[in-house]
Amino acid sequence: MEKDATEEQPVEAQEADLGGLVRSAVGRLYRRFRSERPEGSLGDAALAVLTRLHKHGPQTLTELSEHDRVSPASMSQIVNRLTSAGYAVRTRDPEDGRKVLFSTTAEGDELAGAARAQRNAWLDDRLRALSAEDRAAIARATALFSSIADS
Amino acid sequence: MEKDATEEQPVEAQEADLGGLVRSAVGRLYRRFRSERPEGSLGDAALAVLTRLHKHGPQTLTELSEHDRVSPASMSQIVNRLTSAGYAVRTRDPEDGRKVLFSTTAEGDELAGAARAQRNAWLDDRLRALSAEDRAAIARATALFSSIADS
DNA sequence: TATTGTTATACTCTATAACTATA
DNA sequence: TATAGTTATAGAGTATAACAATA
Questions:
Q1: pTM for the full model?
Q2: B127 to chain A: closest CA residue
């Protein structure tokens, strides 16, 4: 049985400034994602919101802004880009007139599917090239990152 | 079908849109990092460059722009913010007059240390709260992310 | 008054295009 | 000509402050 990857390097070296390594790697990977933007398409923040509406259905501005940890004012501008482009629409909540529900249009649903496949193609290629163990480590770390982002 | 370590968990479940999960988690964690910016300090891109200069010594514009995968023009503006604020200085390369070496000032070195500790404190807290296995998965994934970002 | 959302304004980050200076 | 770097301009993304509408 092969030794676990953690034993191939001194633990101290791995964990020395693990936070700094995580921050650096996440930042560079995020910028790499962003650089894959197809010409003329939505930016990464707008596309992330569109994808969320596509997957999870109509949501209020507050729900969207809390999920992405941006201010309500910032999210308002992001959804403005979506509605201006015809990918989403506003609906007043009939039970609470202060709330606005955002939903995808047919064009928005179509774009959400197409854009994701196009933008993630290079990432999927690289993940496929990894070992099953590497993918398992990434899956585990991804879940942890997501919960850390929520904390 | 081959036998391997992934038999412990269903491969299909692990790999179902792993790319999408990675993109989403990285994006949200990146925004979480960014939201921790202390008042009046540098932005995340500028601080990342300052940290790099602090750790690795003087570098040219091209080296910096390739490491962060941004255009030379973008990096030029980032270092402009650093030099304007007095955290870095320009030096002509004596051996090749076209090149410019950027280095930290004393103020830059001081800020690099203080800002990192301040900005990563909450992340370090969360990493410490994890199991050693979780941290190992994160360390492994972080190295993979870094190499994917370079590819 | 409290909550929900918007608009106004400004800053960071990034890109492309056009430019200067050096090799 | 080729390489290294800068400046001009534009757009996405974000924040705070000030505002309006509804509960």
A1: 0.84
A2: A19
Residues 78-117 of chain A whose Cβ lies under 8 A from any Cβ of chain B: 116
- Contact of B102 with B63, CB cutoff 8 Å: no
pLDDT digits (tens, 9 = 90+) for A18-59: 998 999 899 889 988 887 776 667 898 999 999 999 999 999
User: Locate tokens 């503006």: which residue?
Assistant: B77
CATH number, domain of B81, equals: 1.10.10.10
Question: CA B34 – C1' D17 distance (Å)?
Answer: 21
pLDDT tens digits, B129-141: 999 999 999 999 9
* Beta bridge partners of residue B59, listed in sequence order: B102
Length of chain B: 151
Asked if residue B5 belongs to a domain, the reply is: no
Residues in chain B with CB shorter than 8 Å from the CB of A33 are 23, 26-27
